[in-house]
Amino acid sequence: MAKTKIVVIQLKEIIYTVIFAALGILLILLLIFMFRDKDEETAETETALYTAGTYSSTITLNDMALNLVVVVDKNHINKVSIENIDESITMMYPLLEPSLDSIAMQLYDDVPLEQVELSEDKKYTQQLLLDAIAIALEKAKAGQ
């Protein structure tokens, strides 16, 4: 006959073992997440196109200065608008706002500035706006 062995384990030892094992696993996971986040942050900053913020450039029409404002985040153009436009400018240049809207919609869809399609009937106005947007985006370039 085989001898029967009785092992006595106290409940206190089981609780301590489970707590130390859980703390060990938690410590390992914490170290993994800490080092992984640093690697991802450096990769994101290397690929950023712009420094997030609001940038502006000036357009002069008939001795009136208009501020073209471009709002960007790290990799995307969020808003393109003209700040101090008054009614007399919109009356004298009726293609200004529709041209800006057409360009802005393409830029919001991540079309590069060089590949923005210009309309035949508004191409000079749109080119003027594209040049001003390019100046503002040059200020926004990451690493400057």
Tell me what you see in this structure.
This protein is an alpha+beta fold and 144 residues long. It has a domain at 53-140: Sufe protein. Chain: A (Alpha-Beta Complex), CATH 3.90.1010. The chain contains four helices and three strands. The protein has helices spanning 11-47, 87-92, 96-108, 123-140, and strands at 53-61, 64-72, 77-82. Strands 1-2-3 form a three-stranded antiparallel β-sheet, covered by helices on one side. A hairpin with a 4-residue loop joins strand 2 and strand 3 (77-82). It is rod-shaped, with a radius of gyration of 30 Å.
List keywords for this structure.
144 residues; alpha+beta; Sufe protein. Chain: A; three-stranded antiparallel β-sheet; 4 helices; 51% helix; rod-shaped
List the helices and strands and how they pair.
Blueprint: H1 11-47, E1 53-61, E2 64-72, E3 77-82, H2 87-92, H3 96-108, H4 123-140
Antiparallel strand pairs: 1-2, 2-3
Helix pairs in contact: 3-4
Helix-and-strand structural type = alpha+beta
Number of E strands: 3
Question: Which sequence of SSEs, written as H and E, runs from N to C?
Answer: HEEEHHH
Secondary structure tally, helices? 4
Low-confidence region ranges: none
